Amino acid sequence: MIWQPRIWQPKSSRIEQRHIAREIPLALEYNCISHAVMMASPTDIRDFAIGFSLTEGIIDHYQDILDLTITPDDKGVIVSLEITPACFSRLDQFKRILAGRTGCGLCGIDRLDHAIRPLSPIESRFTVTEEVVYNSMRNISGLQVLNRKTGALHAAAFAASSGEILYIREDIGRHNALDKLIGHMMQEKINPADGFALITSRCSFEMVHKCATFGIPLLAAVSATTDLALKLAEESGLCLIAFTRRDGMNIYCDPQKRLKT
């Protein structure tokens, strides 16, 4: 979307055309039952629905999704998923109805034991040099097509051991961007154990949980992390790096010695 704001500066004022990021309500239905309404960017919606379903513990494998349809609505988009009876039965037990916002990953959870699901150790022998991770983050901004126009979107990317960024997804929500990335990789049958993830945001425990659930062995964030994120990273064997910026990066935990000097 194009808007024409007045650009005020101490010595000038002018009208300029600027790109504005779009966000829409995105409703998720499982087996005809409403489950969540998230605010998201209207791109890569299928990727998001699949990635969200995995990282929220609704499905265990891509094959658990039997059908997926996307229906535009006057107020947003409705994504209808048909999942296996076993997965739907488990979902019904959680009784989790989300009223999601772009920065929220826990809205609507009614019990604390639903907030942090147990994690299995990440199975990966992946190693990479510190310099490769650092250089990969420096290259991510050039691939953020939508953010270059709007300045309002987060990105999540997956890189190979060489540092080459293989896939990238953008969204107004940092959780959404990572779910989109994971959803795309699931569809393409990409092995998450063979690379690492980059995010252009802070690294809260939800971001670690999503990567560990999918099996990504290393996560590097542009901004800060939290104590719970570090605890989850250590428990699952995920290498967690934060403040990955021009002047360097902070390696907070590397329980499986995935970084090579």
- Please tell me what the overall shape is: flat
Distance between the termini: 45 Å
- Count of DSSP-assigned helices: 8
Number of strands: 17
CATH architecture of the largest domain: 3-Layer(aba) Sandwich
CATH superfamily of the largest domain: Cytidine Deaminase, domain 2
Fraction of helical residues: 25-40%
| CATH level 3 topology of the largest domain | Cytidine Deaminase, domain 2
Oligomer: single chain
Rg calc: 19 Å
Q: Structural class of the helices, strands and pairings?
A: alpha/beta
Strand content: 25-35%
Strand order of the largest sheet: 12-11-13-14-15-16
The SSE order reads EEEEEEHEEHEHEHHEEHEHEHEEE
User: How many separate structural domains?
Assistant: 2
Overall pLDDT level: 89
Give the class-level CATH name of the largest domain.
Alpha Beta
Q: What is the makeup of the main sheet?
A: 6 strands, mixed
> Which stretches are poorly predicted, pLDDT < 50 over at least 5 residues?
96-101, 105-113
